[in-house]
Amino acid sequence: MGTQINRPTDLLSLVGRQLGTTDWQQITQDQVNLFADATGDHQWIHTDPQRAAAGPFGGTIAHGYLTLSLIPRALNEVLTIDTLEAALNYGLNKVRFPAPVLVGAQVRATVALVSAQQKPGGVEAVFGVAFEAENVDRPACVAECVAVYR
């Protein structure tokens, strides 16, 4: 379940709150291969299931940046703003990949609003996003992402 607000300025009163947790999403080898093609990162731990089976993780793993790239989907799933002109990615403050995501694993994200402030171009919001993989103790990705809402 997520959070629904009327307009971007409503974010100002939600600072410090958890906005929601996404549904589980499976990471597939097709996704990983497409990401490898898009980024040019064809390292065998991502794209060669046979070789990776004998490697350090027992199978192929998702690129850390693939997991990171799921943030817009996570934000859209946990936050609905009814009256919105634009939502703009502004950047990242912190990113870490504490644990690998095995291909075939289910992942989900929990999103909290770390800060929000009115700026001339709109409301700048900083979200704390933590991705977890099913049955893994450490998070797969922890990030602070910044977005501007108009």
UniProtKB/TrEMBL annotation:
<dbReference type="InterPro" id="IPR002539">
    <property type="entry name" value="MaoC-like_dom"/>
</dbReference>
<dbReference type="InterPro" id="IPR029069">
    <property type="entry name" value="HotDog_dom_sf"/>
</dbReference>
<comment type="similarity">
    <text>Belongs to the enoyl-CoA hydratase/isomerase family.</text>
</comment>
<dbReference type="Pfam" id="PF01575">
    <property type="entry name" value="MaoC_dehydratas"/>
</dbReference>
<feature type="domain" description="MaoC-like">
    <location>
        <begin position="14"/>
        <end position="119"/>
    </location>
</feature>
<protein>
    <submittedName>
        <fullName>MaoC family dehydratase</fullName>
    </submittedName>
</protein>
<dbReference type="InterPro" id="IPR039375">
    <property type="entry name" value="NodN-like"/>
</dbReference>
